[in-house]
Write a structure and sequence with these properties.
This protein is mainly alpha-helical. It contains 15 helices and 5 strands. Strand 1 and strand 2 form a beta hairpin.
């Protein structure tokens, strides 16, 4: 990285507070409540007591919920008495598979619900701040808060529709389909035969149809929402071409995902209803199953992100979204070129410098969550108290990694911290860039309206 770029980075890293650098500008802010984490210890494992950030934690297994919905194949295709032996075997496999997939839906439902709770907490705080600044007639801060509320609305809606609603409806459908498929094994009994037909037929598959319609409506909104940004980009002469291309790429990805997701949901919902009486409905479901798996992968690796949640305790200082994006992009570029990393960012040979960088950029939660996965590090650096019970609460601060570490163990933390910066640090800033690109686009659309 050449020296002009270094001079551009330096002021922002050292002097520019933001929602990405929420902490005091001292080397190690001891009084920042957002840099104090509470964990619980269960035997040799440490876990965060509560989720501190909005997480890109969509489960890969959710992509197979449509496959679980099709596990009633044998029950519907060989809907006859007596049931053929090969059909009985397929029913005995398909029914439990559908029921097991319910566990995936429940787990992902809980993760999505935790994200929504954090977003709603943040929205309440931002609305309160907006009212305060509106009373002061501070139009700049009102606009910045409107931008964050606008993006938060999209985030909340996506979590509710594409996760909570999907997990709930598809999970219920998996239970009904699974039970109906297992009951079909004893289809020689008239009452069981009728109940099985209902559960593995129209009733069970109706859940997929309901979700398909709901998802299509939300996807239509997403397509329209991002389509509004393109005229703004075309008519904005002050934005650099490189930034315009990045914004367009980000928005197109959202739209492509929404289009495929909407079509997939509608087709899969209709095909699911057809499978109750027609075997060829399952043929139509095959590309839908593949599409849902690919959409799940695309969201987790290209669209989703982790980001800090703004709370009253963090005392955030807001900058314009484009300034935040410049800072994040600059640091991301610097981290990708470790061989020419300016010491104004952090000194790789200094543990205190690296921990201070992590804290200033609100990465402490991610760092702790990453490092406690290594049981050997936890047992060596954070051993349980001699008189502790099987479960105890642990509080960690940045000083626990710097000042409280024995000299013989400091090199271990330094090595693990360097590994974190190489493995996860770059991804943290990549995630924040994804969020800020949408924030900048929304800010540009608001500017045009005003």
């Amino acid at each position: 990285m050449d020296s002009p770029e270094q001079e551009e980075i330096q002021p922002k890293i050292i002097y520019q507070p933001s929602d990405l650098t929420l902490h005091s500008l001292t080397p190690l802010p001891t009084c920042s409540t957002s840099a104090i984490l509470h964990l619980t210890r269960n035997r040799s494992r440490l876990r965060l007591k509560s989720q501190p950030q909005f997480k890109n934690n969509l489960l890969a297994g959710v992509g197979y919920l449509e496959l679980a919905n099709a596990s009633d194949f044998a029950a519907n295709v060989w809907n006859q008495i007596p049931v053929p032996k090969h059909a009985l075997i397929l029913m005995a496999i398909g029914g439990p598979v559908a029921l097991l997939m319910t566990l995936v839906a429940i787990y992902d439902f809980r993760l999505g619900l935790a994200n929504v709770r954090l977003l709603l907490e943040e929205r309440r705080y931002l609305h309160r701040l907006r009212a305060e600044y509106a009373a002061k007639e501070d139009s700049r801060m009102v606009r910045i808060l409107d931008c964050r509320l606008g993006v938060s609305y999209r985030e909340t809606g996506t979590e509710i529709v594409d996760r909570i609603a999907m997990d709930g409806l598809m999970g219920i459908g998996s239970v009904l389909v699974g039970v109906g498929t297992i009951m079909a094994i004893w289809g020689r009994y008239p009452t069981v035969f009728l109940t099985s037909n209902l559960l593995s037929g129209y009733v069970g598959n109706s859940m997929a149809a309901i979700f398909g319609l709901t998802n299509a409506l939300w996807s239509g909104y997403i397509i329209w929402r991002f389509q509004r940004f393109y005229p703004v980009l075309r008519n904005d002469e002050s934005t650099m071409l490189g930034l315009k291309i990045r914004l367009q790429t980000r928005f197109r990805r959202f739209q492509y995902h929404a289009i495929i997701n909407a079509i997939n949901g509608l087709v899969a919902g209709a095909a699911s209803m057809v499978t109750a009486t027609m075997w060829w409905g399952y043929v139509v479901l095959i590309p839908c199953v593949i599409s849902l798996i690919l959409c799940n992968y695309f969201w987790r690796w290209k669209l989703g992100y982790d980001r800090p949640i703004l709370r009253e305790q963090t005392n955030p200082v807001f900058n314009l979204p484009v300034e935040e994006l410049e800072y994040v992009s600059s640091v991301q570029t610097a981290l990708a070129q470790r061989h020419s990393l300016p010491l104004t960012i952090f000194d790789p040979s200094s543990l205190e410098s690296m921990i201070a960088f992590i804290v200033r950029n609100n990465m402490f939660e991610s760092f702790v969550e990453w490092i406690i996965r290594d049981k050997s590090v936890v047992s060596a650096l954070f051993p349980p108290a001699p008189d502790s019970l099987s479960s105890e609460e642990v509080t960690l601060t940045p000083e626990d990694f710097v000042k409280a570490s024995p000299p013989t163990e400091s090199h271990v933390i330094l090595r693990k911290t360097d590994e974190f910066m190489k493995e996860a640090g770059l991804r943290v800033f990549e995630y924040r860039e994804r969020y800020l690109l949408e924030l900048v686009g929304y800010a540009m659309s608001l500017d045009r309206k005003t």
